Amino acid sequence: MNGIRRLDEASAAASAGDLESAWAAVPWLPRAIAADAASGLFALWARSTIVDENVGAPVLSRGVFERLHREAGLTADWPIGNAGLLHVYGYLLSTTPTPYGLKRERWLGADLAAAFGLDDDAFLPWRPGPSLLTRVTAAALALLDTAPVRRDERAGTFRVALSAASGPAALVYARAVASDHVAGSDSAGSDSAGSDSAGSDSAGSDSAGSDSAGVRLVTTFPVTDAAALLAALDAEPDRVRWNAAG
After folding, report:
1. Dist. CA 220–CA 171, nearest whole Å
2. Which residue stretches of the chain have pLDDT < 50?
3. pTM for this structure?
4. Burial group, residue 231, by CB count within 10 angstroms (0-12, 13-18, 19+)
5. How many CB atoms sit inside 10 A of residue 133's CB?
6. Phi/psi-derived region of residue 130, left when phi > 0, alpha when psi is between -120 and 50, beta in every other case
7. pLDDT at residue 1, as a whole number
8. From its phi and psi, is residue 204 left (phi > 0), alpha (psi between -120 and 50) or beta?
């Protein structure tokens, strides 16, 4: 049984509430979560809601949400949890359609990997070697440091980075945090996500700081037209985006 078929089986079982069968279908998933928890990787991610802003509803059941956080040793308060856990591993199990397709396609398809300049299979979840979250985290943090387009929003509290100013691109969205909160916490509920940190209001600026050490990641996904997305950001009110817990 190939990887996609096993993931389909796991997603169907999870949707039906049979979490034991779901986990059994993808044994690499609990192993990856355990490894990421042991390495403290979840502490590099901010908080996010599992309620999708385009759908207006959770894209995972509460049972799956709670199982994921329990396996990772993280605290969470439904529907808000650890963004890395939810956007990477949780999205793999989501069967909720969105205007952009299933959430898992960013990891199974080649568009995001190619936009990062990586091999097409760079984000296949079952690829041997480092966990999916390890690979995603490394790519996202690297882009925050090297992106040709970077913008601060919400008075510098959130950062948008794009791998290109036009055409297909990888987007990374991150939350700036005080230096004493960046390291040392692996709790999904400890980011102070309800507080907008002080800072210069550079929304709309392409000159946000490039130090990835001062952020926690929220999400990453491919965009088909970076110029159109930037124009849309300019036209919209300055707000918390892409399911971040603001």
Report:
1. 5
2. 180-210
3. 0.86
4. exposed
5. 25
6. beta
7. 53
8. left
